[in-house]
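Hey, can you fold this?
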Amino acid sequence: ENTRHKEDIDKLSSQLQARGPTKIELKQREKIQKLEEQLNEKRYAEADLAKEKDKSKELQSTIENLKEHITKKETKMNQLQEQCEDAQKQTKLAEKQYDGLKETIQRLQSDNDTLQKNYDEIEGRILQEKEKFVELMNKMNKDNEELQKKIDMLTELNMQEKKRFIWSAKGDKGDGSGDGDVNLADGGNNSSRMFGGAGVVVPTSIKQRIMAHMRQATSLRYDPMGSDFIGTASEDSTVKLWNTGSGKMLKSFRSGSNNVLLGLDIFG
């Protein structure tokens, strides 16, 4: 349409130039100029409109690209949201596992402390038992030494008793009536149960039972003169005199050194 208007204007212009200007033509020229100006303005407007359309297309394309980009971003955001939710779930699971491991470690620590305490107690008991064992061994060694001393003393005492018996037997033979085998005090009967110089007969059954000492008795002696009492010695370092008829204690003697007494003698 603009092209057609331009052709008409050019045609009119050529006609007017050929005939020469008139008032009407001058007016028409003015009109033509105004139309040309309007046409130019319209062209400028159309060019601007075309530019605006191009810009609008570019903006529309940019908007579409932005929408597509936003869509991709939203998709990515959704994926990140899902990953974040998965990470939160895994974090909660890891926290539960951590709490479980923490409780297990605390329980193991408590069990370890209990075992260490029991170990210390057992070690202490073992050390105490070891000390007791060493003390017992030392005591046993000491008792063994004391027993050995007692054995040696008893052996020596036995040797002395044998010597005394031999000398006593020789003395009895020297004081006899000539036969050397019969004691006149019992009417000619040789009794193996004769005891002492008065010819006392040892009883055949238990007459009295006494608890003489707190520890083991080591020696017992009858009065060789035939009186009704006996003497006892013990490891408790005491010597006691007893009435054989009643079983009562008549006298008690204690050694000043608290040593074990292995023998005693009664005279008169």
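Oh, and this one too while you're at it.
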Amino acid sequence: LEQMQMADCCFEVRDIPGRGRGLVASRDLQAGEEVLVDTPLLLTAAPEALGAVCSTCLRRLGSEPDRCQACSSTNHQVAFCSRSCAEAGAAQAHVHGPWLCRAQGSLQAWQLSAEALAGTHFLLQVAALRRAAAAGDGSASDRLQVLISLAGYIPATVPPPAHAEEANTAVRLAQHSADPATGARMDPLLTDQEIARLLILEQQTAYGIMAASAEAGRRRVRGGALYATASLLNHECLPNVARFDDFDGAAAAPGNTVAPFP
């Protein structure tokens, strides 16, 4: 996992009653001061944005994207902004490794609601991490532990989203489709409780990454980003920090989130 950058001793993690963990300033902060720069723990392309953004870094695709050949027979249509991103995606289980490619591609056979489809894509990424971790992938294991840890701090009183049951069923079916040789007795990669808490985590703490403005200034979500630290920032509609991301620019690594006080 890439190391985040932050101002020296400017905040601390605290348990906030009824809210879980959050970042609280540990000293006075100046207007315009940079609080942290964080790199995504997990990026998930929105299902409706597949084929328009890179599945590895969420950059907008150019005129000649590198498309996954294994997806060419389905409507999944995963694509990458460059050959290096395609290779990086295939090498990382949670981005577009072979198992995830088969699992997500199988979803096209079912009529899922938009919310359930997006949630299932995210859950299958986590399932791919668990599968890779069990096979000895240390990087996948580290990333998975941070995700499960974040989900573990969600208060038990928070209900799962309405599409949780639909997404749960879809994850089970996709796992079976991706591993047909193991038969019907396979153990689920994610428990029911983990699925519910992960969906709450994704819904409440992931940041929506917006696409560039379209006609009449309308913008669409290109995907979501979960951060190990930035996800603990205040997510209110009137936040006390401003978030800036740079997915299409060259000034910073894709996905960096800068959160300075206004």
